[in-house]
Write a structure and sequence with these properties.
The complex is a heterodimer of chains A (121) and B (155). Chain A has five helices and five strands; from the N terminus they run βαβαβαβαβα. Chain A is α/β, with parallel strands linked by helices. In chain A, strands 2-1-3-4-5 form a five-stranded parallel sheet, sandwiched between helices. Chain A is globular, with a radius of gyration of 13 Å. Chain B has 155 residues and is an alpha+beta fold. In chain B, strands 1, 2, 3, 4, 5, 6, 7 and 8 form an eight-stranded antiparallel sheet that branches. In chain B, β3 and β4 form a beta hairpin. The radius of gyration of chain B is 14 Å and the shape is globular. Classes of the chains: A alpha/beta (121), B alpha+beta (155). At the A-B interface, α1 of A face α1, α2 and α3 of B.
């Protein structure tokens, strides 16, 4: 399973990767992006099975990234990992085509449960 | 147990306590105890991270983390010894923690409300707070890693 992780904090990327590495997901591999621009390019180059994105990033935020992907006809499964977990944000994420939104802070168990359904895609 | 200066709004000190303690226990495995701010002054160098909130509610969230606490937080998030980490790693970790605390505080505020990216720096914001804003609540914590202050500003 190849996961593209779009997150501007290296500390958070490492924390997410550690949590998922311990979950016995098949053929787990990560591609890291520091912002939405880089993530958009890497989705095309790497064809990940799942995109996990922060919401609050410089220049192109996570919602803009999702809208750009869907606007380009890319149906890659997409989940938000974000502290922006209000009802408004959840509605915007769903309307834009996100599969899930997991609020920070989250547990490793909740993260794995959110990601596992896409491991066999 | 906390400083409250302006009239209480949609955020209470208890909200700040619950959010911050949950973030610290979830991501750093650190327990935070609440103490009166006057009994827990910020010692030495302080790494501050501020995020602006604007929209239906305008203000800021400020996290002030002394050097030792910042190093411990970065070590936990990077899973490395503090000596192996750079100043940039500490800024990254504290900025992200502040972003998570502020994002959860934002969820308690009236919508629409936008959250800025964190502005992180040593000492610069430690005493005066974000410019143009008045202190609403300040909560002080202590942990094995040292003192931590989280404050919410309005304006």
């Amino acid at each position: 399973m190849k996961i593209l992780l779009a997150e501007d904090s290296k500390a958070m990327r490492l924390l997410v990767m550690r949590a998922l590495t311990g979950a016995a997901l098949p053929d787990l591999a990560f591609v890291e992006a520091e912002d939405g621009f880089e993530a958009f390019r890497l989705v095309a180059e790497e064809s990940p099975d799942l995109v996990l994105a922060d919401w609050n990033m410089a220049d192109v935020n996570g919602l803009d990234l999702l809208r750009a992907l869907r606007g380009a006809g890319n149906p890659v499964p997409f989940g938000f990992l974000t502290a922006e977990s209000s009802a408004t944000c959840r509605a915007q994420a769903e309307a834009a085509g996100a599969q899930f939104l997991l609020g920070k802070p989250f547990t490793a168990e909740a993260l794995v449960a959110a990601v596992r359904p896409y491991a066999g895609a | 147990m906390t400083d409250t200066v302006l009239q209480a709004g949609p955020i209470s000190p208890d909200d700040i306590v619950e959010i911050t303690r949950t973030v610290w226990s979830s991501f750093l495995q650190l327990d935070l105890a609440v103490v009166p701010p006057e009994e827990a002054p910020l010692p030495g160098r302080v790494l501050s991270a501020a995020l602006r909130l604007s929209g239906a509610w305008s203000g800021a969230v400020l996290l002030q983390c002394p050097e030792g606490h910042a190093a411990a937080a970065a070590a936990a998030m990077f899973a490395r010894e503090p000596a192996q980490l750079s100043d940039g790693d500490a800024r990254d970790a504290v900025g992200e923690l502040a972003n998570i605390v502020a994002g959860n505080i934002k969820s308690l505020l009236p919508a629409p409300c936008e959250l800025s990216l964190p502005s992180v720096g040593w000492d610069g914001l430690a005493s005066a707070g974000p410019s143009g804003a008045g202190l609403l609540h300040r909560v002080a914590f202590v942990a094995t890693a040292g003192v931590l202050h989280v404050s919410v500003w309005k304006g």
